[in-house]
């Protein structure tokens, strides 16, 4: 997989998400959402769900979990995705000659 494939997959996933969709809640999740709604005094549980997605996203970025999964699936990191180029492309490493016998000592 590559950076281009990751960008394409993100675009496809974004298009597949509707602005509104139904999520079924198990008993534990429903209880936790009710507790958070009461604690934050909100009448809009959707706002708490949005905050939860933001929190999970930030946590996976900060802990390196997102990079781990992106590297495993697409062979890129989050920073490479944000910059639009791989580390090798940034440093020019993809333009170095191969180190076969005729090019071994030429740079």
UniProtKB/TrEMBL annotation:
InterPro entries: RHH-containing. Residues 88-107 are annotated as: Disordered. Pfam families: RHH_11. This is Uncharacterized protein. It comes from Halohasta litorea.
């Amino acid at each position: 997989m590559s950076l281009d494939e990751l960008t394409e997959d993100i675009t496809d996933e974004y298009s597949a998400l509707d602005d509104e969709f139904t999520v079924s809640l198990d008993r534990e999740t429903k209880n936790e959402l009710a507790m958070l709604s009461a604690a934050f005094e909100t009448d809009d549980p959707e706002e708490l769900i949005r905050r939860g997605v933001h929190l999970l996203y930030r946590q996976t970025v900060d802990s390196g979990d997102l990079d781990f999964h992106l590297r495993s699936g697409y062979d890129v990191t989050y920073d490479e995705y944000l910059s639009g180029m791989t580390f090798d492309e940034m440093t020019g490493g993809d333009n170095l000659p191969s180190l076969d016998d005729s090019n071994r000592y030429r740079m």
